[in-house]
Design brief:
single chain, alpha+beta
């Protein structure tokens, strides 16, 4: 079993409240969930309306499958990037169990 996790840091432009942040982040999460077979959630900086940290994970029988899927998710998020900029991406794959 191979588990790949990604930590994405997003800088939100022109956001001035937590409500506006939620209205920007929620559609991103929902679109990624509906298009890709991954788990995604906001994992940090919940009270900071200028920065959002998202966690994405997937599990498969091959590291190559995971990397291909994660790269597709990252490309899709870049495609959606209206009102935010991805400032940091960390990817880690764990093998075993």
């Amino acid at each position: 079993m191979h588990v790949t996790v990604v930590k994405l840091t997003l800088m939100l432009d022109d956001i001035h409240s937590l409500k506006a942040k939620r209205n920007t982040i929620r559609p991103i999460i929902e679109k990624v969930k509906s298009r890709h077979n991954v788990s995604i959630s906001e994992i940090s900086r919940n009270d900071d309306y200028k920065i959002s940290v998202l966690g994405v994970s997937c599990v498969s029988n091959s590291t190559q499958n995971n990397i291909k899927l994660i790269n597709g998710v990252l490309d899709f998020i870049d495609f959606l990037s209206d009102g935010f900029v991805v400032t940091d991406t960390q990817i880690e794959t764990m093998t075993g169990f």
